[in-house]
From TrEMBL:
<dbReference type="InterPro" id="IPR036890">
    <property type="entry name" value="HATPase_C_sf"/>
</dbReference>
<feature type="binding site">
    <location>
        <position position="33"/>
    </location>
    <ligand>
        <name>ATP</name>
    </ligand>
</feature>
<feature type="binding site">
    <location>
        <begin position="99"/>
        <end position="100"/>
    </location>
    <ligand>
        <name>ATP</name>
    </ligand>
</feature>
<dbReference type="GO" id="GO:0051082">
    <property type="term" value="F:unfolded protein binding"/>
</dbReference>
<feature type="binding site">
    <location>
        <position position="84"/>
    </location>
    <ligand>
        <name>ATP</name>
    </ligand>
</feature>
<dbReference type="GO" id="GO:0140662">
    <property type="term" value="F:ATP-dependent protein folding chaperone"/>
</dbReference>
<feature type="binding site">
    <location>
        <position position="37"/>
    </location>
    <ligand>
        <name>ATP</name>
    </ligand>
</feature>
<dbReference type="InterPro" id="IPR020575">
    <property type="entry name" value="Hsp90_N"/>
</dbReference>
<dbReference type="GO" id="GO:0016887">
    <property type="term" value="F:ATP hydrolysis activity"/>
</dbReference>
<feature type="compositionally biased region" description="Basic and acidic residues">
    <location>
        <begin position="447"/>
        <end position="463"/>
    </location>
</feature>
<dbReference type="InterPro" id="IPR020568">
    <property type="entry name" value="Ribosomal_Su5_D2-typ_SF"/>
</dbReference>
<feature type="binding site">
    <location>
        <position position="360"/>
    </location>
    <ligand>
        <name>ATP</name>
    </ligand>
</feature>
<comment type="similarity">
    <text>Belongs to the heat shock protein 90 family.</text>
</comment>
<feature type="binding site">
    <location>
        <position position="171"/>
    </location>
    <ligand>
        <name>ATP</name>
    </ligand>
</feature>
<protein>
    <submittedName>
        <fullName>Molecular chaperone HtpG</fullName>
    </submittedName>
</protein>
<feature type="compositionally biased region" description="Acidic residues">
    <location>
        <begin position="217"/>
        <end position="230"/>
    </location>
</feature>
<dbReference type="InterPro" id="IPR001404">
    <property type="entry name" value="Hsp90_fam"/>
</dbReference>
């Protein structure tokens, strides 16, 4: 066979400098491309064998070998797959492979912004020219009597092709590396790349360092993947022990060709799932649970999604979803394929129907990709709601870890929310997990009970004192009727239909619900800081939900939006009626006068002109002062903080909303009321204010310093 010289049909002078520039950040993908080609070549031959067209010797073992030669500065990829005849090299390499590179060039030649170039654009065989000045192919086709072929090119548009010397079936591609790419002949660098892209390739891959002493090479091989693979490609601990002796002699593949996700879920053990998780994600903490995806129709998709334990130390929610196509790694966290909220999980997804050269821009509007994403989201919702129904105990155990993820999913994906919304639970003050419906039911019951009690008490008082205040009585009975009705009325009203009881059911028919008709759902964001309020709540027999995660604020806003009859209110937003003593009319007058006097005094002492002060008779006599901050103001302030609008005056959005509540039942408050002008009163006022503030939020540094100094002064007074 004579040597053929030719010119690749390309209009551009030399595309390689351009390819290099565009793919600069992802040079290492040439390894994936060449090994994928080798793997395809083996698959093709296996198919021919199944079809009865090719005869493969019984002792044949398919494999791919990657050989680096740091002295020669080469890297070599060889396989014992289908191989190529001269005609095939002409067609597949000179025409098809090159036209792939040409297409790439045409598509991107006018783009000036490197970000627009997708790092994972598969260039196939020609990606080898990103790192090599010269590339050779030595190949021998599987076909009987085929002649070996040698092909080489120095990266321009010229190539040389002639009869080769290869004696074994398959293909060997050698890259003579460019000076700036010598790293790809370095053993550790190449092993790192192989680990990234090829850990689960479907055929065994061996690594050889042509310059390493034989023993050393074997030892180095062992550390690339922790799992030992036996003859059937099965990873096993036992295999490890049994084959220990052989292992020393036999080189080990660097990959696991039978990853767990490819097995049927029924054939996988719990320990295998955990081991796979440790190997792939290097997470020393065990996953909470996992979902094994296994779908053949209408598309092919396999994978395992793990729910990791949240790292509370950093509150980090960074997941990692590795995407594969036929066991070849494509990329991490491709958000077009995997719903965004699932990025908080850790897992592997293998979808052979996805092309290797995943171009993100092409995926964005792809209906097929959207279907994959919807399927994954549905599977996750099904698993979680199934757990809620049949494994409630486990579900509750995992709830704190999985709830940020579920809530994020609800915020991001309407379909997911619809499927999961009835399985959302909340921890209450007793540490029990309840649904919102259960909370609302209990709250309504409690409200009705309180009203009834109050009415009873009033009736008793009235009969003892024989004092009748017609206005009060009328109002209180009306209120009682209304609330008891709200709690007890179970009539199935049609939208807007009168139920005959005179109660307003306007909220039942989708109209805007009046503020006073909403059920308040109290919540705690910081159990330590809000402990004073928690104690008051517990004493009053009230319940609240613990919502401490950052995601909770946007989440409850969404719940309120979805269910207009509900209003979330932080536990310190107001002093509820349950905390206050019933006050008679004349007492109310006294409280009003005291409120006026204390407002004046505290504003003067604290230098806060706009401070709201209220004097109330709180049932809990141990509480002296409390600060409340209206829910609206607090949410506004939080939003401003979130959007870095710090320093802006919250008053511009309708008042600071902060109120200092003084308990008229506390001795210290009584002292201030009766000794407004005494020497120590200003100090007591400041201390009462700071103490109230402390159980609400942390003090500013300056205020904290003053608080500590003042506390010392107070102790000095005691010491006198
Ligand atoms: N190791 C190999 N053994 C046999 N044939 C090969 C080998 N490498 C490449 N080929 C042939 O050359 C063709 C072109 O390869 P190239 O990698 O450029 O494109 P591709 O694999 O078809 O597509 P992709 O862009 O997805 O890689 C292949 O389709 C295949 O027929």
């Amino acid at each position: 066979m004579s040597t053929e010289r030719g010119s690749l049909s390309i209009h551009s002078e030399n595309i390689f400098p351009i390819i290099k520039k565009w793919l600069y950040s992802d040079h290492d993908i040439f390894v994936r491309e060449l090994i994928s080609n080798a793997s395809d070549a083996i698959t093709k031959l296996k198919k021919l064998e199944i079809m009865g067209e090719a005869n493969i010797p019984e002792d044949n073992k398919f494999k791919i070998t990657v050989t680096v030669n740091p002295e020669e500065k080469t890297i070599r990829f060889s396989d014992n797959g289908i191989g190529m005849t001269m005609e095939e090299v002409k067609e597949y390499i000179n025409q098809i492979a090159f036209s792939g590179a040409q297409k790439f060039l045409e598509k991107y030649k006018d783009k000036t912004n490197e970000d627009q170039i997708i790092g994972h654009f598969g260039l196939g065989f020609y990606s080898s020219f990103m790192v090599a000045g010269k590339v050779t192919i030595d190949t021998l086709s599987w076909q009987p009597n085929a002649a070996p072929v040698h092909w080489e090119s120095e990266g321009g548009t010229e190539y040389e092709m002639g009869e080769g010397t290869r004696t074994e079936r398959g293909t060997e591609i050698t890259l003579y590396l460019n000076e700036d790419s010598y790293e790809f002949s370095n053993e550790y660098r190449v092993k790192e790349i192989l680990k990234k892209y090829c850990s689960f390739m479907p055929f065994e891959i061996y690594f050889v360092n042509a310059n390493a002493p034989v023993e050393e090479e074997k030892e180095a091989d062992e550390d690339i993947i922790d799992t030992t693979v036996d003859e059937d490609g099965k990873a096993s601990e036992d295999g490890k022990a049994d084959n220990k002796a052989n292992e020393k002699k036999k080189p080990q593949p660097i990959n696991n060709p039978n990853p767990l996700w490819a097995k049927h879920p029924n054939d996988c053990t719990e320990e295998e799932y955990k081991e796979f998780y440790r190997d792939v994600f290097h997470d020393y903490k065990e996953p909470l649970f996992w979902i094994h995806l296994n779908m053949d129709y209408p598309f092919n998709l396999k994978g395992i999604l793990y729910f990791p334990k949240i790292n509370t130390e950093y509150d980090s929610l960074e997941g990692l979803i590795k995407l594969y196509s036929n066991q070849v790694f494509i990329a991490d966290n491709i958000k077009e394929v995997i719903p965004e909220f699932l990025m908080l999980l850790k897992g592997v997804i293998d979808c052979p129907d996805l092309p290797l050269n995943v171009s993100r821009s092409a995926l964005q509007n792809d209906g097929f990709v959207k279907k994959i994403s919807d399927y994954i989201s549905k599977k996750v919702a099904d698993k979680l709601s199934g757990m809620y129904k049949v494994e409630r105990e486990n579900y509750e155990k995992y709830w704190d870890d999985i709830s940020p993820f579920i809530k994020f999913g609800c915020l991001k994906d309407d379909k997911f929310r619809d499927k999961i919304k009835d399985s959302i639970i909340y921890k209450n003050l007793e540490g029990k997990y309840i649904t919102l419906a259960e909370y609302v039911e209990a709250a309504k019951g409690k409200k009705a009970e309180d009203k009834e009690e109050a009415a009873d008490k009033k009736n008793k008082d009235e009969s003892v004192n024989e004092v009748t205040d017609a206005d009060t009585k009328e109002a209180s009975v009306d209120e009682k009727d209304k609330d008891v009705h709200a709690a007890e009325c179970t009539h199935d009203h049609e939208h807007g239909e009168e139920c005959g009881c005179g109660h307003d059911h306007s909220q039942d028919n989708g109209e805007e619900v009046k503020e006073e008709d909403k059920t308040l759902v109290y919540y705690v964001t910081d159990e330590k800081q809000q402990s004073q309020y928690i104690n008051m709540f517990k004493e009053a027999g009230l319940d609240a939900l613990i919502l401490t995660h950052n995601i909770d604020q946007p989440f409850i806003t969404q719940v309120e939006y979805q269910d207009q009859k509900i209003k979330f209110q932080r536990i310190d937003a107001d002093i509820t009626d349950s905390f206050k003593e019933e006050t008679k009319k004349k007492d109310q007058k006294v409280l009003k006068n005291n409120t006026d006097a204390m407002t004046k005094l505290f504003r003067k002492v604290l230098g806060k002109e706009k401070l709201e002060v209220k004097v109330e008779k709180l049932k809990n006599e141990k509480v002296s002062s409390v600060i409340t901050l209206s829910e609206e103001s607090r949410r506004m302030q939080e939003m401003m903080r979130m959007y870095s609008m710090n320093g802006m005056d919250p008053n511009m959005f309708g008042g600071g909303g902060e109120t200092l509540v003084l308990n008229a039942n506390h001795k210290l408050v009584q002292y201030v009321i009766t000794n407004e002008n005494s020497e120590n009163t200003p100090m007591i006022c400041e201390q009462l204010y700071d103490l109230a503030l402390l159980s609400h939020k942390s003090l500013e540094p300056e205020a904290m310093t003053k608080f500590v100094q003042r506390s010392n002064e107070i102790m000095m007074l005691l010491a006198k």
